[in-house]
Design goal:
29% helix
């Protein structure tokens, strides 16, 4: 869902220039292969594809200060809210990018990423749009190039048809699927961090699907 455009964000986002790459100064080939230098430290690199308002990545960063996190979001107005959250919590191990995931290979080198997260992405329900789904074979092959091996993808969605489609795609590429859950909240996992969408959908009684995928 797209929020109403907030023109003032284009200037306000620069309050966070120390950790945000906005749309008028996006991540580029300059950072490709050099994210350890951007963070000024060597650490595993975890990337969330579709960060939203930042609930998930902020809590992950707090729990894992030894990991460098990058959150990618196409909508700058939404990422502004994530940036405010990161600042208020005093988090220093997160970088946020206003960026189109379709161009992901322009900002990461082969084997640079340790783990990807995809949380509640657009299901693109029409069959003719299947290639736009972030778990389509086309995207999986691209992630495989960017991940260290073995690398991991953690996927969550409330959309069961998308989840079933994704499991088929993982199998088609020969990936190892572990820890599959078709009703995550029924398992009461203490380590589960909810996104803003997860809270909303689970509040409606929707079951949350989750799995971990290893790229061998």
């Amino acid at each position: 869902m797209r929020l109403r455009r907030k023109p003032w964000v284009d200037q306000a986002i620069h309050d966070f220039d120390d950790f945000v790459f906005p749309k008028d100064n996006p991540a580029s080939e300059e950072q490709k292969g050099k994210w350890a230098q951007v963070f000024d430290r060597q650490a595993p690199l975890h990337v969330e594809l579709g960060t939203g308002k930042g609930d998930f990545i902020s809590q992950m960063a707090l729990r894992h200060p030894d990991i460098n996190f990058i959150g990618i979001e196409a909508q700058q107005d939404v990422l502004y809210m994530a940036a405010k959250k990161i600042r208020e919590l005093g988090i220093t191990n997160v970088k946020l990018l206003v960026f189109d995931i379709n161009n992901i290979e322009t900002i990461f080198s082969e084997g640079e990423v340790d783990q990807f997260y995809i949380n509640f992405c657009d299901p693109w329900p029409k069959a003719r749009h299947a290639k736009r789904r972030l778990t389509h074979v086309g995207f999986l092959k691209r992630y495989s190039k960017l991940l260290k091996h073995p690398g991991k993808l953690v996927f969550k969605t409330d959309n069961r048809p998308l989840f079933d489609f994704s499991l088929e795609q993982f199998e088609e590429v020969g990936l190892q699927v572990n820890d599959v859950s078709f009703d995550l909240h029924a398992e009461n996992r203490p380590d589960n961090i909810m996104t803003e969408y997860e809270r909303k959908f689970s509040g409606f009684g929707e079951k949350i699907n989750r799995c971990e995928v290893t790229f061998p």
